[in-house]
Amino acid sequence: MAQQTQSAAASGTFAIGGDLRVNRLGFGAMRITGDGIWGPPVDHANALAVLRRAIELEVNLIDTADSYGPDVSEELIAEALHPYPADLVIATKGGHTRSGPNAWTPNGDPMHLRNALDGSLKRLRVDQIDLYQLHRPDPNVPFEESVLALAELQRTGKIRHIGLSNVSVAQIEKARRIVPIVSVQNRFNNATGGDAVFNGVIDDETLRVVDYCTAHGIAFFPWGPLAAGKLSAQRISDVAGAHGVTPNQIALAWLLQRSPVILPIPGTASLAHLEENVAAGAIRLTDAEFAALDASAG
């Protein structure tokens, strides 16, 4: 397949919170850990190489979480990249606990969030987190209590900006009445589209969230941007063939063109896939191609 210039700068830029300007195509650091997002990677040196190559390709937005490993992803980021480039934005998350591979339990208790943040600061070797996101609302803790805890931590200077993940429009609005929210991270890709999965329920809530973020200038990080290989093959393959690129690259290009606030954060433990993903930032779909993909996605 043909490759475009491999620089995340080709994807354009967005200023998260108005002051953290990043190239729109970022890197999700979940898959550099072990199987089931549990434990260390099988190839430690390769994980470090992927992170360093991302920076060489001008990726300056890395998304991670304390629960990736747990702890492992943040530790690898610091090992590979500290002291950090001046323009690098590291977004991390708190609000999940782990009991084993592929096991995730929400924990939005304010004390847990305070401890989680302190752990992230230590592992990332920083005094302030650029963007700290509530990983998921905890059904056993009032949502406002979790958000208030982050607002208090922001006032101490430990958090620069606050974001949310896996939320509805109503929850975003509720949080914004407490503290400014600069980003939202929900599952969104061309395979889900109008059947976007939101908290395990098939509906169009994430489409409403994307539109809400676009209207209010809130960064939207689509997690699972490549749908774990479940993209609508024929439709995307036809467009990919016309451009001489891969279906995954077309899926990323579609996300970038769908809204100026969308910042895809594809994750990978492969150097080749990293370079392929970054190259997608230079692809420009025709109006007809975008319309065909967008119509089928919702």
Sum this structure up briefly.
By secondary structure, the chain is an alpha/beta fold. Helices cover 38% and strands 17% of the residues.
Report on the structure:
With 298 residues, the chain is α/β, with parallel strands linked by helices. It has one domain (13-296): TIM Barrel (Alpha-Beta Barrel). It is 38% helix and 17% strand. It has 10 helices and 13 strands. The protein has helices at 44-56, 72-81, 110-124, 143-155, 169-176, 205-216, 233-243, 247-258, 271-279, 287-296, and strands at 13-16, 20-23, 27-28, 61-63, 89-94, 96-97, 105-106, 129-134, 159-165, 183-187, 197-198, 201-202, 219-223. It has a 7-stranded parallel β-sheet with strand order 3-4-5-8-9-10-13, with helices on one face. A two-stranded antiparallel ribbon has the order 1-2. The longest helix has 15 residues, at 110-124. The model is unreliable at 193-203 (pLDDT under 50).
